[in-house]
Amino acid sequence: MRRMAAGNGALDLVQYAPREERGYCTLRVFVRMRAGRSYVHPAPGYTGAMPDYRRIFIPGGTYFFTVNLLERRSTLPTENIASLRHAIFWTKRRTPFRIEALVVLPDHLHAIFTLPEGDSNFPQRWRHIKSRFSRSLAKSEWRSTVREKRGERAIWQRRYWEHYIRDKRDLRAHIAYCYYNPVKHSFATRVSDWPHSTYHRDIRSGRFEPDFAPEDVLNWKIPGEQA
After folding, report:
1. Where are the alpha helices (DSSP H) in 54-153?
2. Beta-carbon neighbour count of residue 54 at 10 Å?
């Protein structure tokens, strides 16, 4: 609840409805207090319905994703890394895509996928990955009444964040973000110390030198890029 000054001696208290799926709060109601009485008004544009998030679907596009656990204090992805890897490659065999970069942290992951020409259905791929991983785990998590009625697990947040990669510079920047993320969150002191990352694959392939510096990003070899 937050206080907001209003005209004519009124005081508005703005109530925010917590949104578990996105980690931020949605403006829900105004409580206007005047002369010792309160009046409740819906916030402008609030209907009680789920917001309409618009995603960009570009066939053959490259996307950066952030996918979070519902319980951010959990460490299920790294504790069950083999199951997560299986879920990703099980999905990849059935609905192909190229993994440009992937890093798995205890409570979230970042990934960059390139889809095949003519295909923009990345939501289907994430549904498969998340559900396959969830089904591999014992049902020990707490679930809300809504999730129980729907038969849903409470492992992942329902939604995720995606960014369409515009060009090669944008791709380099997001690959660097992926690989530096364990260092940023103090899970590792060097990029090469974190095991759950395609960084090691890229080192073996000669894409860049071990323990790269941020400025080295501009010199990385990008698939399909002319020398």
Report:
1. 76-79, 81-94, 122-135, 145-150
2. 6
Rounded mean pLDDT, 9-30:
37
Q: Please give the Cα distance from 123 to 127 (Å, whole number).
A: 6
pLDDT of residue 145: 72
Judge contact between 114 and 62, C-beta under 8 A: yes
The answer to whether the CB of 70 falls within 8 A of the CB of 157 is yes
Whole-angstrom Cα distance, residue 203 to residue 86?
A: 22
The whole-angstrom separation of Cα 98 and Cα 118 is: 14
CA distances to 13, 97, 128, 163, 203 from 125, in Å: 42, 9, 5, 16, 27
What's CA 207's distance to the chain center, in Å? 25
Topology of domain 62-219 in CATH is Alpha-Beta Plaits (3.30.70)
Give the whole-angstrom CA distance, residue 70 versus residue 156.
Answer: 5
Does this model's pTM top 0.85? no
> Residue ranges of the domains in the chain?
2-42, 62-219
